[in-house]
TrEMBL record:
Belongs to the iron/ascorbate-dependent oxidoreductase family. InterPro entries: DIOX_N, IPNS-like_FE2OG_OXY, IPNS-like_sf, Oxoglu/Fe-dep_dioxygenase_dom, Plant_2OG-oxidoreductases. Keywords: Iron, Metal-binding, Oxidoreductase. Pfam families: 2OG-FeII_Oxy, DIOX_N. It comes from the Eukaryota. GO terms for molecular function: metal ion binding; oxidoreductase activity. Residues 202-307 form the Fe2OG dioxygenase domain. The gene is LOC123447561. The keyword Metal-binding applies. This is Fe2OG dioxygenase domain-containing protein.
Amino acid sequence: MELLSNAPAHHSVPDKYVFPPDNDECAALLADDYSPDVAFPVIDLHGHGGSDLPIISNGRRRQLASEIIRAGKEFGFFQVVNHGVGEGVVRRFRGAMEEFFAMPAEEKLPYCSYDRSKRFRLATGTTYDRGETSYWRDYIKFRCYPASEENARHWPSKPSNFTPSLMEYCAAVDELAQTILRLIAEGLGLDGSFFAGDLSGGDTHMSVNYYPPCPDPTVTMGLLAHCDRNLLTVLSQADVAGLQARHDGRWLLVRPIPGAFVVNFGHQMEIVTNGVLASVKHRAITNSTTTRMSVAVHPTDGCRIRPASEMVDDATNPVKYREFLFKEFMEAYDAADANSDQVLKSFKIHHD
């Protein structure tokens, strides 16, 4: 497998990464990502994440919950600052990831695979590459939390700080994710523990996306337009822009904020809330000057999904989706090549 990260620099875009001229995904890439009047919401958690959250006053909790729900309904995306995940924790883990991608090709080769049953795998492009065209990225996908012996034995031994920095990072980000899920539940009028248990238990998955500088960002894409599958995603994109999200028919850049995490909802959240909090399409573009690396944590899969009874009202918001196992949803998602609209059709209930 020839990885993009194996080359010290790219002076031209190889043919396999060049999209056809009439490809919609590459049309007007650079012209449609800027609007000075629109910015994705930034929510200040005031440094109280995870176990510290209960000491916040009831009024502040209600305010935070309300801000998250409002951001979710309007954008499906928001950023959080003062979230309790230490700057050093993030820096150490991102540093370990950068070292991994910088290793010689022969040292990375044992981890290269397109077999999605593997607990740790390194690959290039995406599972949903369009015909002969590949997306401009290398990526790692693996089960990152909890640090069970079964998961950990698949992690690489190099760099030496990979495992300790991963365990530190994942524990902190999982705590942040659980904090946000509790606030979402409260903001929806549900019990604060609604998303605990099966809905957010089990193994947490991580995607580390590596986008090297691209000689011509107008002819290729970093990652296809898609919606995430899980409840929510907590993303570190550091200080390099490249994430775009769909809003009011336009692609808008999710501009990096120092120390922030980007949070967005997935299909699982949309279905459980019966459409109240919708998943939003997003994609990654490339740039010609700087390597960009994003780290996405996706809590849970493998549970039974259905709209919460509290989110269903026969008169105003009738049930929109049937009950199913998340495994069934994953199969439909792959069969539809991540086409979000097509996927949801398989599970919608049509009212006469």
